[in-house]
Fold this protein.
Amino acid sequence: MTMKAMVMLSGGQDSATCLAWALDKYDWVETIGFSYGQRHIVELNCRRTVLSKIVKLNSKWFSRLGPDFVVPLGGLNRLSGSALLGQKKIDNEPGKIPNTFVPGRNLLFLTYAASLCYESGIDTIVGGMCETDYSGYPDCRSETIKSMQTALSLGMETSFKIVTPLMHLTKSDTWKLAEKLGGNSFVDLIIENTATCYKGDRENKHNWGYGCNNCPACELRRDGYLKYKNT
C-alpha cells in the first residue's frame, strides 16, 4: 500500500524540515501553501525555492514529491487585526498571546488541507506546529491539533491523521533533525532559502539565515541555531 502525505509548507524553517521528514518516510508527498495577506509574503517565494532545491539533495525525495497547491485566503486580513497581516508594531508581552497571532489560521489551514486530502485520496496531513518553543499561539498546541484531527475525521467521515514531527522538539532539536535528514546540505538550504522573520526581512543575512534579528520568530530561530551549533 502506498503511503501518502500532504505537507503544509509555508516556506519557513519548520515546514521545510517537515517536508524533508515526510519525503523520508512516505512514498508520495504533496504540498499545500496559503496566501492570506501575510506581512512576510516573501515566504511564498521561499517555498517555491525549497520545493525546487530539496529534490536535488536526494534522488528518493525527487521521486516522491508530487504536486504543490497554493490556496488564496484573502479574507483573513479583513477579519483580523493581527500584526502579521499589517504593519502595526509587533508586540510580545509576557503572559499574553502575541499580537502576531491570527485567530483560527491553523484551523483554516488544516481544514483546507483535509479537503484537498479527501479529494486526493490522502489520509495524512503533516504540519510544523510546535508547543515547546512555540510563540504562544493556542492553535499550535498538541491538544488543539488532536481536536482538529477528530473534528475533520468526523466531518468528512474519513480517518485523517495529523502528524506534527516537531511538536515536542526545541528549535535546537529542529536544527539537529534537519541535519539528520539531509546533512549539512539541507541545513544550508534552510539557512539560505527559508523565511522565518515576521517582517519578511531578506536583506540582513546572519549565520542562521535572513531576518531582522529582533522579532520573536528571528529570536527563536537564532537562539535555537546557536544552541545547535554549541552542543
